[in-house]
Amino acid sequence: MLEVYLGNDESGAEVSLPLSQLSHLFLLGGTGAGKTVYLCRLLADLMKEHSPNELHFIIHDSKGIEYQGLRTSPYVRFPIYGDSDWRSFEKVLATLEESSQEGGIPTIVIIDDAAALSECIPSFGKRVASLIRKAGNLHFFVSAQNLNPELEEIRGECGLEMDYSSSGALVLEPFDGSSIPLSQRPKSSKSLYFLKTSV
Question: Which of 23, 27, 156, 184 is in the most buried spot, having the most CB atoms within 10 Å?
Fold first, then answer.
């Protein structure tokens, strides 16, 4: 079973959810808050536990530098695109829209800092939200520094949100308000709060 690490509880025990339950994740926070660090840790953990025959990644790396080590990885289905390659990433979206996502190898779609894509690709939010709704074997992990209407549409379809507040706290929120405090987030001493999902 594919498990996604979310953080550690107050006793130090790791808290994870099966990928099938977590499904989609929206990460919101400013530069340097830890969104990319978390996503890189997540991919590294999954690669330790699962082979490329069990799991694929599709990655949009806004800065074009954060996922360099994965460029030739057998886990990655398409080249890793940055903001300057938004037309190429739009073609990836079109491919996903045209193909059936039922069954097959689970695929995590990382869109790290989606703001630029939302400004360049027509109907970006609507298209990604539609893919999330029909997901099948796709699991979207989308990060953003700020929200705009396009990103709000994506956020509304994700079952769980990580909110890196300005105070340094991290909140995982499924929009139902229940909470379990966690003592730390990946590779950070800042506080983390996990809000239970209803899944």
Answer: 27
Residue 7 belongs to a domain: yes
- Where do the H-state alpha helices sit in 12-60? 19-22, 35-49
Q: Where are the beta strands (DSSP E) in the chain?
A: 3-9, 14-18, 25-28, 56-61, 107-112, 138-144, 160-164, 170-173, 180-184, 192-194
Inside any domain, residue 199 = no
Q: Which domain holds residue 148?
A: 3-194
* Residue numbers of the chain with a pLDDT score lower than 50: 166-171, 173-199
Contact at 8 Å (CB) between 108 and 1? no
The alpha-helical segments, DSSP class H, found in the chain are 19-22, 35-49, 86-98, 115-120, 124-133, 149-157
**pLDDT for the residue 168:** 44
Distance CA 129, CA 135 (A): 9
Q: Looking at the domain assignment, is residue 119 inside a domain?
A: yes
Specify the number of domains making up the chain.
Answer: 1
At 158 the pLDDT is: 83
